[in-house]
Design goal:
Shape: globular
Helix content: over 70%
Structural class: mainly alpha
Radius of gyration: 24 Å
Strand order of the largest sheet: 1-2
Largest sheet: 2 strands, antiparallel
Family: Belongs to the major facilitator superfamily. Proton-dependent oligopeptide transporter (POT/PTR) (TC 2.A.17) family.
Number of helices: 22
CATH class of the largest domain: Mainly Alpha
CATH superfamily of the largest domain: MFS general substrate transporter like domains
Number of domains: 3
GO molecular function: peptide transmembrane transporter activity
Strand content: under 5%
InterPro entries: Dipep/tripep_permease, MFS_trans_sf, MFS_Transporters, POT_fam, PTR2_symporter_CS
Main location: membrane
Organism: Flavobacterium fryxellicola
Length: about 600
């Protein structure tokens, strides 16, 4: 396959999209399996007691480390995007990233203090190389089919969430019910499978993502007639200054809190050294960004301003949405009644069986469709993909068997229990894992993504600002649900038994909000940004996400302080109000942003 046009990819399609999209679909699925599987356990592991195998940290310290970790994960995409664009190409970046993440998960499975921190560092750099370049490959495949990009990204996002669903469900279950090592280790195994599948199928992408050479660079420059705007030495120095300062702040913020002030890089700046450092970095970056915009041609400049506006809104979205693995997981673990008896036990077991098996059936069906189109050319990759699914099916059936036995609805002999590595129980109990609620987000996306994809492709497709307004409004509705549910919890309470329905509603509304904002936002970056800047601007987009992620951690750090003084409900009402304000702002800016987008929908 020597040519590289949009038409060649659409000659072999699955569900109306190129077969190559679904190679990326499954690669991204296993990467998200590993990422979300580990992430769902991190806060619980850090705050669990020593007797339960955890580190017994305070919620404040756990949230500080969590916020910096996920912030660095997305910040590192700037580095990965640059190396892919200039040095190694998209494909090698994906392989390097996947390899680093495999090693990172393996290190975390060892569970020593050094190995956990080493694992987090490897995962940060691995995600940086992997994440922006997967979306860059999708963008290149659809560069001449902009009308199908929204649908493609929504389907791609469905693969992301299929991986997240099974990662949280299975890694979370093993981590909580069996041992943290099993949860962390399983995440690494499937990252390795994803890497092999991608590497062995890479020829399906034609020339996309190959290592840049003089010919490819010249070709890209010939196609791009936009005004050039190279970085001057002063601008590069400003980027280095703000980047290093922000990086040091992300590391120092949790380090200074966890160490009780013994480790503090910015102590020379006084008591507010951390705040001074990050504000200085942001001011320098914003000044540079404004100046850079003045140097581009008028249309490019206005499109980049539009992207920056949506990136700004995205910060608030992720800061609130990402309470899922943080304050909402704490709410599920400590303040929600998760023990079920009688008919409710049966209802949960049946529902859990359905939401485990049905998505597996659907994804397996997509896998079979892909086999029909690609097995002849990529047999080994398809065999590896098949093996990974066989393992997933096996673990899922083992989990359900264990649940039915523990609940008293299934009798197993001692020899069978020993063979299946299931502990014998004498008292029937059905307890929903705290991580289980996070799977609802992915489950709802798998169910609702096709509907939203059709909506975006119809004549009723809302404007970009309205999509963001709807998304932030739904985010507010979800937070209002949990705020109302927590209204009976007194200030200072460490435990409670709130109904599970409030968390279910939160994840339903937040999922619809995510479908309005996250995949659509990525699509607008690819539509509005010149081709030569795609990978870098995806990196800039993920920089906004990084700020939002760290913001989520900072919100989570304060949950105990606010709950002790005003009650837990007050904390969630604050997030509700912020969401409403951002939603109204997005809708109010519609005329301005529409003009800046120059007809792009």
């Amino acid at each position: 396959m020597s040519e590289n046009t949009t038409d060649q990819f659409f000659k072999s399609t699955v569900l109306g999209h190129p077969a190559g999209l679904f190679v990326l679909f499954f690669t991204e699925m296993w990467e998200r399996f590993s990422f979300y599987g580990m992430r769902s356990l991190l806060i619980l592991f850090l705050t669990a007691s020593f007797t339960d195998g955890g580190w017994e940290w305070t919620r404040e310290n756990a949230s500080a480390l969590f916020g910096s970790y996920v912030g660095l994960v997305y910040l590192s995409t700037m580095l990965g995007g640059y190396f892919a664009d200039k040095v190694i190409g998209f494909r090698w970046a994906v392989v390097v990233g996947a390899s680093l993440m495999t090693l990172g998960h393996a290190a975390m499975a060892v569970e020593t203090e050094f190995s956990i921190y080493l694992g987090l560092v490897l995962l940060v750099f691995g995600n940086g190389f992997f994440k922006p370049n997967m979306t860059s490959i999708v963008s290149e495949m659809y560069k001449d089919r902009p009308e199908k990009k929204d649908g493609a990204y929504t389907l791609f996002y469905m693969g992301v969430n299929a991986g997240a669903f099974f990662g949280i469900l299975l890694c979370g279950y093993l981590g909580e019910k069996v041992g943290w090592t099993y949860g962390f280790g399983l995440a690494g195994i499937f990252m390795f499978f994803g890497m092999l599948q991608f590497w062995l199928s890479q020829d399906i992408f034609g020339d996309i993502g190959l290592k840049p050479n003089k010919e490819s660079k010249a070709k890209a420059e010939a196609l791009d007639t936009d005004k050039r705007n190279p970085f001057s030495p002063i601008q590069l120095a400003a980027i280095a200054f703000s980047s290093i300062l922000a990086l040091l702040w992300l590391i120092n913020d949790p380090a200074s809190k966890i160490s009780g002030g013994k480790v503090n890089i910015f102590s020379f700046l006084g008591a507010n050294g951390n705040a001074i450092a990050i504000v200085s970095a942001l001011v320098v970056f914003i000044i540079l960004l404004i100046y850079r915009f003045t140097q581009y041609s008028k249309i490019t400049k206005e499109k980049l301003i539009a992207v920056t506006f949506f990136a700004f809104l995205t910060i608030f979205f992720w800061a609130i949405f990402e309470q899922s693995p943080n304050s909402l997981t704490i709410f599920a673990s400590d303040y929600t009644d998760r023990v079920l008896t009688g008919n409710w036990s049966v209802v949960f077991l049946v529902i859990n069986s359905l939401i485990t098996i049905l998505p597996l059936v659907i994804i397996t069906w997509v896998l079979i469709l892909l086999f029909k189109q690609t097995f002849k050319f990529y047999a080994v990759a398809n065999v590896i993909l098949s093996i990974s699914f066989i393992i997933i099916w096996g673990i899922a059936i083992w989990m359900l068997t264990k649940d039915y036995y523990t609940a008293g609805y299934l009798s197993l002999s001692d020899s069978t229990l020993q063979a299946l590595k299931i502990d014998k129980v004498t008292t029937a109990l059905t307890e929903v894992p705290a991580t289980w609620f996070s799977t609802l987000n992915s489950l709802f996306i798998i169910s609702l993504a096709p509907l939203f994809s059709k909506w975006w492709e119809s004549k009723y497709n809302p404007s970009a600002n309205l999509k963001y307004g709807i998304g932030m409004g739904l985010l507010a509705l979800g937070m209002a649900c949990v705020a109302f549910g927590a209204s009976g919890i007194e200030a200072g309470a460490k435990t409670a038994s709130v109904s599970m329905i409030w968390l279910i509603l939160v994840y339903l509304f937040h999922t619809m909000a995510e479908l309005c904002i996250s995949p659509v936002g990525l699509s607008y970056v690819s539509k509005l940004v010149p081709a030569r800047m795609i990978a870098f601007m995806f990196g800039v987009w993920y920089l906004a996400v990084a700020i939002g992620m760290k913001g989520a951690g900072m919100f989570g750090e304060n949950i105990d302080k606010i709950a002790n003084e005003h009650g837990l409900s007050y904390f969630f009402w604050m997030l509700t109000i912020i969401s409403i304000v951002v939603a109204l702002f997005s809708v109010a800016m519609t005329p301005v942003i529409k003009k800046l987008m120059h007809g792009v929908r």
